[in-house]
């Protein structure tokens, strides 16, 4: 816990969801996240974009607690959580998806969602018959319905196609009713039609939920994201509204390439 | 069909998972012109790609390449016959470093693709030479998967959603690289979700719906016709 | 004719008298009273055909075979039917097999087992099944007949402590070794062997330098050898089977130059006939054994050896092992007992058979056999020495200790002279 | 003093034998993710083959070679016939090898009986040699085992980390279908690995039978030892196996020399201790 | 997210309808059929001691033995199925319970009412302690650690002779007489064992269906995700291991009275492997498998020797084990289905086999059973060390064995 010189964390304003100061993550010689500051307020929608290997997923992993940072502090909902376990962060209302789906592949779609609903401590009676838990089962079915998996509640997840798994990945996070939702490339692997559905889900998200989104599809990243953070080589190179980013030469050069609108 | 040289001819292909009939009488051809396949999630595109490579058993049908029947052959023989494969989900080997991936697949000296030429196309990989495959970023892994396939110096390249997870600039770079390969005479069969990328590369677009090929269009046709897009792909 | 039968019948259950009808498989409760005349008499046998003693057990089977031939597969006018169950020398398996014999095959007579722990387990099982008479085949743990002996458990050979008891005085008086170390595995049978040896040895004025208890199943003795003190006259080693082979060859490798005196299993046929460097080192080892060297001219022993060699010219050992003679003696005792009881076995739950066996005595190839009040025989012990004869290793008799008595209590693991 | 030295040397040489046995196990595991629990039975088989050939031909080195080849072949047959179809199910594969081990050991018992067998080394390897330290005379054969172990260790390490063959195998473990889909015939490659790994068990058996006799039960003993060695060092790592063997050899020998009563416990305690601190073994990889 | 009609998913390609749609008479019929089978089974089990020809043998040597052996195997199967941890150490807890009861009662005159619960409790506590280390390991490491613990106990018991009577073990006990019914009576013992086995089974079955049980399976598939959802992965795995130790301990107490004591032989390596064989033989994917396998092995051990099959017992056990693993992957409980499958695809499988011989690597066209790529790992776990599917690997690697993800 003896972290190097601690950057001062500003006295959090009441509605700060996330305040990150001087965050650093090294893997051997690679500095995946470098001295990063980031503030996110209540109900904000923030997109994170950047070239491959910029450190976006690593940033998520550090915020979620899967990786210990090599430097810096993270304050979430007004509490310093830098050393806290993944589990405790989840209890605080953090939910995330993984860039490569991490699902319970030998369980059914329904059971996957049911487990997502039972994650937080509280009213769950862990030793009751799970099949009798009508209320949660119904909620699980609702969530499956939202991505068109309503008919496949009893299908084993390992048998879903790639895109279907990506969609389940998304609702797993939604089902925990998070206060802070972090999505790592939710549109990857989705067909254009399903992307439409994803947009619907994202735009209809409750305003109480704060959203942090990594996405390479600019039609989503720059439409859903009200603020965009551009990363490159672990650093934050630009931050601003979608239009600023769209018109930035830097972003075009390092990320978007010739075409004016990504995909 | 006298000159099947370098042509992929698929005919009446049927694949089941258990009793689920996933591919139903699929037939198409890929010649010099690149062909792309689109379709919604779960329609059977990946299954088709795997069946071509011998990675899923087919119940019936035929897959001929350069006049040679490949259905039933081992994957390695199919690759030897000249088909390269970029799998969906990348399938990198975590035990190997980036460089080891390329060295292992190897390439005969003097071939079109060697470890060095691949590094030229994907400089990012050269920077990550000694990083374990598992620790590459998603996009880096995707590049590696493509590079790996190129190193087998295939006559036909089968790619399953190669643009997934790639930054727009890289996608563009990839598209132009592939385009120039096509111009050099490389055959390509591409499964894609990214309509732009698919239409840019594929002259022909096949649309897969529920395990059948619903239609075969020229890419301009599909691009121009919103109604068709809506009908087949659900793009509103 | 018998040659062919032996191998084939080894593991199979029914060794019927040739030409006799198969009769019943001992079904029902097996206690059908009434006219037993001509009914086959069913004997269940538990032999260690699996596990580390398989070779010994197989030789034991040859002993049984000899008895059967002697009796022409018939006792007291009833054909003998044998059901062999194989154990792996663990007590659990032995009891499981015994249960199967008693409960499914309905036998009233059990012959077996081979190892000490099995013997103990069966002796305690005997308490539960009073109508069954158990005759021990070759096991040597002391407690079996010492602590709470079962009235239906009979042992026609002496036990571990008795086998080594006469060796102590012999070592001092005849060999002049006054200070020894002991090396043995750490479980009941070697405890008894060391205990038996030390009792006589210390009483005769001997001095114990150190004891080395090796964990069961260890085959590397090199470091133990390194820690044996230098100022001793000899080392007493109670190991057997492959452990003995390993110890003896490592003793050469690591330059253990002290004379070796041995427990009863140290130089069995398996050691003498095993290949390798062991041969160089065994000459001169003095051991106390339950049976005489093949050359010894005692009792009817020579006849026995000859008959063994005639019956098993190829597959057997060159000379019978201890298991052959122990199985022979015990099985023959059982048959003699049945004869004595007039073939009455089932009707009275074995009462008359037990009475007969407790009373009877007979001359076995290795000396007179008779039971004490614990139904435990007190037999002769043969102190022998390994000698080389025309390049062949054999044992030679040094002394016969007659009718060694059973101690009062079983020996525990000793680390100093017993008081 | 010279007692400590002798015991230390014992530890070292016993460790060499453990390493020889364990290297085959760890090789197969490291490259194919297969835990071959018939490895102990292979050891036994190797010893018996060497014994029989030595009996027949009077040639010790021929016996060693025969053990190597025969056990390697048995390994390949087992792999091709029983394991190949279920190769990707690690647990099932391990269980099948337990079955094979039961059958093989039991059949060897039928054939060779329960008598102890040993493979007598040739004259130039028997007897003791002066070490020139504290006047210790040490068995020549054990020094030979030590040398052999070092040789095998170095060869294996180079083979795995430096050759393309090694890469193919490592990749094949991660995702076999994908290796196949780059035009490599994985089947042949895997068969070769199985041959080498099994042959090492056979060699170890033939060599080990010169120091410790073979008998029913030897198989389980060596299986357990090699598993402990490999687990302590980290599955799949050749240097790990070397370190594991050293630790196990030294600890067990010193325990045997000084507190024999607990000797059987210490090796297990050692392993539990190591796993408590490093669940993946000393040199095992987490990622 | 529904698209236009043409694109709507083809119902034929969906999985079977879920339970809700299975209403009406079909549901009732299926329910009664299930109840019928259960009733018949109960009847058979209750009548068993009174209808068999040689009750002493069939009830004691076969039935009761299968019951207690089944309960240990049950603990193994439950753990493997729900957590993917394959334990070779269940006999440890079995023996701790047995020895505790034995030492307390035979050497310290503690009444059984105290010593039996004490034994089970102590064994469970030992389970919890072992769990502290064991659940941190995975795959073979776990297998070996549990094995090491049982070997350690084996040698401890051998050496602590003053307490455990070493190699001889504890024997010659008097069996308790609960409510004046002597356990020496085989029928009393049988029904007691039956009740305990049924209780243990019901408990295991129930726990599997609770959110707790479901969470265990979630952890087996993806511990990272479970953490991200807010579960305490370590604690869950520990509790699961401890629960399994408890079940094994119950069996240990039962077997103690069956054998009339306990010896170190009860926990040697071969017994631990026996438990594994039982589990596989019966079918490691089903809790019933424990009892089916126990019955199977007991019969095998009793009748192989009877000369019905011309093969040594150990060899025969090995052969049966391998055949079951390769060709009857679901074990005995899955036998009917498997045989039907073979019947149906017999011809295809035959062709497939030949096809594979010719075609090399390529899986044959028949699925399942004939060795083609099955979709699920039998035990639900991987022997690989943490590295392969460990928490750090984040991309594309887990697809290896579960197919496309
Ligand atoms: N566990 C690790 N060990 C070593 N290097 C790592 C590890 N994880 C990530 N990296 C490296 O850190 C860099 C950032 O990776 P990260 O996954 O965060 O990129 P990303 O921005 O999400 O890229 P993409 O858009 O391609 O997914 C990469 O170069 C990657 O190789
Ligand atoms: N291993 C499997 N077992 C059973 N069903 C499967 C399996 N793999 C895929 N399926 C099913 O087969 C259908 C086709 O899957 P496939 O992966 O070919 O779709 P896809 O068109 O590639 O979809 P996506 O765009 O999402 O990758 C899906 O409904 C899927 O659920
Ligand atoms: Mg990423
Ligand atoms: Mg796909």
From TrEMBL, chain A:
GO MF annotation: an example: ATP hydrolysis activity
Domain ABC transporter: 18-258
GO biological process: D-alanine transmembrane transport; L-alanine transport; L-isoleucine import across plasma membrane; L-valine import across plasma membrane
Keywords: ATP-binding, Nucleotide-binding, Transport
Assigned GO CC terms: plasma membrane
Pfam families reported for this sequence: ABC_tran
Matching PROSITE patterns: ABC_TRANSPORTER_2 (PS50893)
Record-linked SMART domains: AAA (SM00382)
Entry keyword annotation includes Acetylation: no
InterPro entries (alphabetical): AAA+_ATPase, ABC_AA/LPS_Transport, ABC_transporter-like_ATP-bd, P-loop_NTPase
PANTHER family per the UniProt record, alphabetical: AMINO ACID ABC TRANSPORTER ATP-BINDING PROTEIN, CONSERVED COMPONENT OF ABC TRANSPORTER FOR NATURAL AMINO ACIDS-RELATED
Protein name stated in the entry: ABC transporter ATP-binding protein
From TrEMBL, chain B:
Any GO BP annotation: L-amino acid transport
SUPFAM superfamilies: P-loop containing nucleoside triphosphate hydrolases (SSF52540)
Transmembrane spans: none
PROSITE patterns reported in the protein's UniProt record: ABC_TRANSPORTER_1, ABC_TRANSPORTER_2
Ranges where the ABC transporter domain occurs: 8-235
Gene3D superfamilies reported in the protein's UniProt record: P-loop containing nucleotide triphosphate hydrolases (3.40.50.300)
Keywords, ordered alphabetically: Amino-acid transport, ATP-binding, Nucleotide-binding, Transport
GO molecular function per UniProt: ATP binding; ATP hydrolysis activity; branched-chain amino acid transmembrane transporter activity
Record bears the keyword ATP-binding: yes
Family: Belongs to the ABC transporter superfamily.
Protein name: ABC transporter ATP-binding protein
Phylogenetic lineage: Bacteria, Bacillati, Actinomycetota, Actinomycetes, Jiangellales
Automatic annotation (TrEMBL), chain D:
Residues passing through the membrane, by range: 12-30, 37-54, 60-81, 93-114, 141-160, 188-212, 224-248, 255-277
InterPro entries in the cross-refs: ABC_transp_permease, BCAA_transport_permease
Keywords: Amino-acid transport, Cell membrane, Membrane, Transmembrane, Transmembrane helix, Transport
One example of a Gene Ontology biological process annotation: amino acid transport
Membrane disposition: Multi-pass membrane protein
GO molecular function terms listed in the Swiss-Prot or TrEMBL record: transmembrane transporter activity
Subcellular localization(s) per the UniProt record: Cell membrane
GO annotations of cellular component type: plasma membrane
Predominant localisation class: membrane
Coiled coil (UniProt feature): none
Superkingdom, natural source: Bacteria
Pfam families attached to this UniProt entry: BPD_transp_2
Family according to the record: Belongs to the binding-protein-dependent transport system permease family. LivHM subfamily.
Listed name of the protein: Branched-chain amino acid ABC transporter permease
UniProtKB/TrEMBL annotation, chain E:
InterPro entries in the record: ABC_transp_permease (IPR001851), LivM-like (IPR043428)
UniProt feature coiled coil, ranges: none
Compartmental location: Cell membrane
Residues annotated as transmembrane: 31-51, 57-79, 86-106, 112-133, 140-161, 188-207, 234-257, 277-300, 312-332
Basic and acidic residues composition-biased segments: 7-21, 354-376, 395-405
Domain of life: Bacteria
Pfam families: BPD_transp_2 (PF02653)
Signal peptide span: none
Keywords linked to the UniProt accession: Cell membrane, Membrane, Transmembrane, Transmembrane helix
Keyword Transmembrane: yes
One example GO MF annotation: branched-chain amino acid transmembrane transporter activity
Region: Disordered, residue numbers: 1-21, 353-405
Main location: membrane
Topology in membrane: Multi-pass membrane protein
One CC-aspect GO term: plasma membrane
PANTHER family assigned to the protein according to its UniProt record, in alphabetical order: ABC TRANSPORTER ATP-BINDING PROTEIN (PTHR30482:SF17), HIGH-AFFINITY BRANCHED-CHAIN AMINO ACID TRANSPORT SYSTEM PERMEASE (PTHR30482)
Name recorded for this polypeptide: Branched-chain amino acid ABC transporter permease
Species this protein is from: Phytoactinopolyspora halophila
């Amino acid at each position: 816990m003896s972290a190097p010189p601690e950057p001062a964390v500003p006295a959090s304003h009441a509605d700060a969801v996330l305040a990150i100061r001087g965050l650093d993550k090294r893997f051997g010689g690679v500095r995946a996240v470098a001295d990063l500051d980031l503030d996110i307020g209540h109900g904000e929608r923030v997109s994170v974009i950047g070239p491959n290997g910029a450190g976006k997923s690593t940033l998520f992993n550090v915020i979620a607690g899967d990786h210990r940072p090599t430097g810096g502090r993270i304050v979430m909902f007004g509490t310093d959580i830098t050393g806290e376990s993944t589990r405790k962060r989840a209890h605080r209302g953090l939910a995330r998806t993984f860039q490569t789906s991490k699902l319970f592949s030998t369980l059914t779609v329904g059971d996957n969602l049911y487990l997502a609903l039972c994650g937080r401590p509280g009213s769950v009676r862990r030793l009751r018959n799970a099949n009798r838990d009508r209320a949660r089962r119904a909620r699980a079915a609702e969530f499956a319905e939202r991505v068109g998996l309503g008919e496949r509640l009893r299908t084993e997840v390992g048998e879903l196609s790639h895109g279907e798994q990506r969609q389940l990945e998304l609702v797993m996070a939604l089902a925990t009713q998070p206060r802070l939702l972090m999505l790592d490339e939710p549109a990857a692997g989705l067909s254009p039609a399903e992307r439409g559905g994803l947009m619907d889900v994202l735009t209809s998200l409750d305003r109480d939920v704060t959203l942090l989104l990594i996405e390479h599809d600019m039609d989503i990243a720059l439409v859903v994201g009200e603020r965009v953070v551009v990363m490159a080589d672990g650093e934050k190179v630009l931050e601003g509204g979608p239009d600023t980013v769209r018109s930035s030469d830097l972003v075009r050069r390092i990320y978007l390439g010739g075409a004016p609108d990504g995909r | 069909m006298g000159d099947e040289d370098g042509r992929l001819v698929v005919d009446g292909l049927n694949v089941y998972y258990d009793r689920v009939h996933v591919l139903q009488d699929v037939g198409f051809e890929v010649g010099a012109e690149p062909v792309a396949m689109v379709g919604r999630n779960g329609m059977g595109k990946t299954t088709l790609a795997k069946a071509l490579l011998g990675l899923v058993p087919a119940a019936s049908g035929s897959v001929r390449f350069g006049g040679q029947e490949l259905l039933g052959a081992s994957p390695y023989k199919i690759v030897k016959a000249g088909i390269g494969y970029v799998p969906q989900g990348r399938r990198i080997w975590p035990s190997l470093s980036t460089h080891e991936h390329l060295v292992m697949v190897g390439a005969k000296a003097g071939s079109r693709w060697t470890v060095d030429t691949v590094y030229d196309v994907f400089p990012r990989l050269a920077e990550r030479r000694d990083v374990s495959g598992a620790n590459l970023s998603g996009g880096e892994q995707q590049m590696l998967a493509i590079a790996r396939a190129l190193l087998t110096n295939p006559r036909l390249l089968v790619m399953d959603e190669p643009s997934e997870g790639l930054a727009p600039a890289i996608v563009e770079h990839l598209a132009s690289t592939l385009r120039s390969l096509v111009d050099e005479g490389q055959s390509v069969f591409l499964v894609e979700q990214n309509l732009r990328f698919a239409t840019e590369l594929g002259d022909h677009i096949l649309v897969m719906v529920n395990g059948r090929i619903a239609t075969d269009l020229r890419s301009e046709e599909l691009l121009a016709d919103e109604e068709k897009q809506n009908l087949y792909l659900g793009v509103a | 004719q018998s040659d062919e039968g032996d191998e084939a019948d080894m593991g199979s259950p029914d060794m019927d008298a040739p030409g006799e009808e198969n009769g019943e498989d001992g079904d029902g409760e097996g206690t059908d009273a009434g006219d037993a005349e001509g009914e086959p008499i069913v004997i269940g046998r538990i032999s260690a055909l699996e596990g580390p003693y398989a070779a010994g057990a197989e030789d034991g089977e040859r002993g049984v075979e000899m008895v059967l031939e002697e009796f022409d597969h018939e006792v007291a006018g009833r054909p003998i039917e044998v059901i062999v169950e194989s154990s792996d020398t663990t007590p659990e398996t032995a009891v499981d097999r015994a249960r199967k014999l008693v409960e499914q095959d309905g036998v009233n007579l059990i012959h077996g087992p081979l190892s000490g722990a099995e013997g103990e387990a069966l002796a305690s099982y005997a308490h539960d099944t009073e109508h069954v008479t158990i005759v021990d085949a070759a096991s040597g743990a002391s407690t079996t007949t010492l602590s709470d002996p079962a009235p239906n458990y009979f042992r026609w050979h002496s036990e571990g402590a008795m086998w080594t008891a006469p060796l102590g005085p012999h070592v001092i008086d005849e060999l002049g070794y006054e200070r020894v170390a002991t090396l043995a595995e750490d479980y009941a049978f070697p405890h008894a062997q060391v205990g038996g040896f030390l009792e006589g040895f210390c009483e005769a004025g001997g001095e114990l330098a150190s004891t080395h208890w090796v964990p069961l199943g260890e085959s590397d003795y090199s470091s133990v050898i390194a820690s044996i003190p230098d100022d001793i006259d000899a080392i007493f080693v109670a190991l057997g089977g492959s452990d003995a082979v390993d110890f003896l060859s490592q003793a050469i490798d690591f330059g253990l130059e002290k004379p070796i005196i041995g427990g009863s299993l140290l130089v069995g046929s398996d050691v003498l006939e095993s290949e390798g460097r062991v041969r160089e080192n065994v000459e001169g080892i003095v051991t106390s054994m339950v049976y005489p060297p093949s050359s010894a001219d005692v009792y009817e022993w020579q006849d026995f050896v000859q008959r063994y060699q005639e019956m098993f010219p190829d597959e057997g050992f060159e000379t019978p092992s201890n298991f052959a003679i122990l199985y022979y003696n015990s099985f023959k005792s059982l048959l003699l007992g049945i004869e004595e009881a007039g073939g009455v076995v089932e009707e009275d739950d074995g009462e008359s058979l037990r009475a007969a066996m407790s009373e009877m005595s007979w001359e076995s190839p290795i000396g007179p056999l008779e039971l004490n009040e614990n139904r435990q025989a007190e037999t002769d012990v043969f102190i022998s020495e390994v000698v080389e004869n025309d390049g062949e290793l054999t044992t030679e008799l040094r002394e016969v200790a007659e009718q060694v008595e059973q101690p009062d209590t079983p020996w525990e693991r000793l680390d100093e002279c017993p008081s | 003093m010279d007692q400590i030295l002798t015991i230390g040397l014992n530890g070292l040489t016993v460790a060499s034998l453990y390493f020889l046995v364990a290297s085959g196990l760890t090789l197969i595991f490291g490259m194919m993710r297969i835990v071959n629990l018939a490895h102990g039975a292979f050891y036994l088989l190797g010893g018996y083959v060497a014994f029989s050939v030595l009996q027949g031909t009077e040639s010790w080195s021929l016996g060693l070679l025969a053990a190597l080849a025969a056990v390697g072949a048995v390994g390949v047959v087992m792999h091709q016939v029983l394991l190949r179809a279920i190769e990707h199910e690690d647990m099932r594969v391990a269980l099948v090898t337990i079955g094979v081990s039961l059958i093989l050991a039991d059949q060897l018992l039928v054939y060779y009986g329960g008598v102890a067998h040993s493979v007598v080394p040739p004259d130039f390897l028997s007897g003791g040699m002066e070490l020139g330290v504290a006047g210790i005379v040490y068995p020549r054969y054990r020094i030979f085992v030590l040398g052999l172990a070092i040789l095998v260790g170095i060869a294996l390490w180079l083979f795995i980390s430096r050759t393309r063959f090694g890469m193919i195998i490592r990749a094949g473990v991660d995702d076999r279908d994908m290796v196949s889909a780059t035009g490599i015939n994985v089947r042949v490659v895997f068969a070769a690995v199985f041959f080498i790994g099994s042959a090492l068990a056979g060699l170890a058996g033939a060599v080990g039978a010169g120091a410790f006799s073979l008998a029913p039960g030897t198989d389980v003993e060596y299986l357990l030892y090699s598993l402990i060695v490999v687990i302590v060092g980290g599955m799949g790592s050749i240097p790990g196996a070397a370190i594991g063997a050293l630790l196990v050899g030294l600890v067990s020998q010193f325990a045997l020399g000084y507190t024999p009563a607990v000797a059987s416990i210490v090796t297990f305690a050692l392993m539990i201790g190591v796993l408590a601190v490093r669940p993946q073994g000393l040199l095992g990889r987490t990622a | 997210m529904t698209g236009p009609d043409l694109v709507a998913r083809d119902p034929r390609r969906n999985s079977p309808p879920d339970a809700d749609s299975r209403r009406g008479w079909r549901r009732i019929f299926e329910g009664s059929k299930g109840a019928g089978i259960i009733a018949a089974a109960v009847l058979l089990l209750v009548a068993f001691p009174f209808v068999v020809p040689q009750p002493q043998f069939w009830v004691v040597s076969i039935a009761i033995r299968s019951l207690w052996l089944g309960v240990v195997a049950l603990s193994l199967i439950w753990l493997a199925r729900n957590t993917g941890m394959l334990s070779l150490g269940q006999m440890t807890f079995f023996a701790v319970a047995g020895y505790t009861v034995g030492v307390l009662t035979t050497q310290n005159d503690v009444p059984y009412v105290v010593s039996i619960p004490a034994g089970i409790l102590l064994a469970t506590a030992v389970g919890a302690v072992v769990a502290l280390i064991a659940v941190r390991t995975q795959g073979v490491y776990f297998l070996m650690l549990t094995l090491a613990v049982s070997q350690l106990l084996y040698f401890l018991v051998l050496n602590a002779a003053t307490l455990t009577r070493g190699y001889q073990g504890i024997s010659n006990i008097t069996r308790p007489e609960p409510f004046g019914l002597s356990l020496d009576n085989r029928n009393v013992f049988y029904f007691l064992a039956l009740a305990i086995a049924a209780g243990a089974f019901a408990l295991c079955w129930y726990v599997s269906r609770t959110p707790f049980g479901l969470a265990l399976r979630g952890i087996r598939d993806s511990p990272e995700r479970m953490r991200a959802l807010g579960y305490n992965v370590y604690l869950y795995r520990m509790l699961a291991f401890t629960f399994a130790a408890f079940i094994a301990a119950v069996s240990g107490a039962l077997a103690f009275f069956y054998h009339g004591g306990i010896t170190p032989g009860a926990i040697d390596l071969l017994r631990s492997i026996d438990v594994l064989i039982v589990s596989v033989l019966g079918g490691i994917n089903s809790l019933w498998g424990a009892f089916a396998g126990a019955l199977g092995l007991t019969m095998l051990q009793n009748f192989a020797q009877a000369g019905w099959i011309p093969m040594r017992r150990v060899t025969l056990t090995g052969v049966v084990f391998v055949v079951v693993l390769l060709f009857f992957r679901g074990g005995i409980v899955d036998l009917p289905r498997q045989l039907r499958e073979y019947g149906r695809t017999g011809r295809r499988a035959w062709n497939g086999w030949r096809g594979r011989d010719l075609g090399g690597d390529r899986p044959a066209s028949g699925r399942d059973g004939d060795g083609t790529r099955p979709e699920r790992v039998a035990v639900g776990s991987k022997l690989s060390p943490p590295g392969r599917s460990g928490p750090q690997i984040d991309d594309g690697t887990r697809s290896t064995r579960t197919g496309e993800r």
